[in-house]
C-alpha cells in the first residue's frame, strides 16, 4: 500500500515527506478510524484513503508544526471516515 501511495508522487522531497508522515502518523490514523467506525472492517481502506487525501495537501502540511500536523491528520481522518459511513448508509 505504501509503495502505491509513494509511486503517485513525482517529487523526491515530497516522497520523503510523505514516507515520514506515514511512519509518524499511521498508528494515529488507524486508531482514529477505529474510534469512529467501532469495527475492524474497512479500516485499512480508510487509512489508505486518508493518506491519499493528505498527499494532495503536502505543501500545506509542510507549513505546520507537529501539533498542527497531528490535528490536521486527525481532522482529515475523521472526515474521510464519516464520509465513508454516510455513503455506505445511503446504499
Chain-wise SSE layout:
Elements lengths: L1 H6 L4 H26 L5 H13 L2 H5 L3 H25 L1
Describe this structure in words.
With 91 residues, the protein is mostly helical. Helix content is 82%, strand content 0%. It contains five helices and no strands. 16% of the residues are buried.
Strand content: under 5%
Shape: globular
Uncertain residue ranges: none
The total count of helices amounts to 5
Instruction: Summarize model confidence as the mean pLDDT.
Output: 91
Distance between the termini: 27 Å
Helix percent band = over 70%
Query: What's the total number of strands?
Result: 0
Order of helices and strands: HHHHH
SS-derived structural category: mainly alpha
Main beta-sheet strand count, sense and barrel state: none
What Rg, in angstroms, do the CA atoms define? 13 Å
Amino acid at each position: 500500500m505504501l509503495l502505491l501511495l509513494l509511486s503517485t508522487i513525482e517529487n523526491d522531497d515530497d516522497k520523503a515527506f510523505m514516507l515520514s508522515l506515514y511512519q509518524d502518523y499511521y498508528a494515529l490514523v488507524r486508531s482514529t478510524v477505529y474510534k469512529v467506525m467501532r469495527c475492524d472492517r474497512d479500516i485499512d481502506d480508510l487509512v489508505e484513503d486518508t493518506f491519499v487525501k493528505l498527499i494532495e495537501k503536502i505543501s500545506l502540511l509542510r507549513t505546520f508544526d507537529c501539533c498542527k500536523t497531528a490535528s490536521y491528520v486527525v481532522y482529515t481522518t475523521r472526515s474521510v471516515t464519516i464520509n465513508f459511513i454516510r455513503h455506505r448508509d445511503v446504499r
